[in-house]
Amino acid sequence: MTSLSPKSRNDHLGVERALAEIRAGRPVVLHSPDQTCLVMGVDGLEPELLAHLDSLKLTEHRLILPAPRLRRLGVQSSLTSQSSNPGAIALLTLDLARIENLTFKLGASIDAPVSALQPNDQAALELIRLALILPAAVVSRFADQAQEDQTILELNLLRVEASQILSFRANEAASLHIVSRAPVPLEGASETEFVIFRGGEGMRDQVAIVIGKPDLTKPVRVRLHSACLTGDLFGSLKCDCGDQLRSTTQFMAEHGGGVLLYLDQEGRGNGLSNKIRAYQLQTQGFDTYDADEVLGFDHDQRHFDFAASMLKQLHIQSVQVMTNNPFKIAALKDAGLEVVADERILGRKTDQNVHYLATKRDRAGHMIDLDSLSTQGLISD
Question: Out of 136, 149, 243, 346, which residue is the most buried by the measure of CB atoms under 10 Å away?
Answer without folding.
Answer: 136
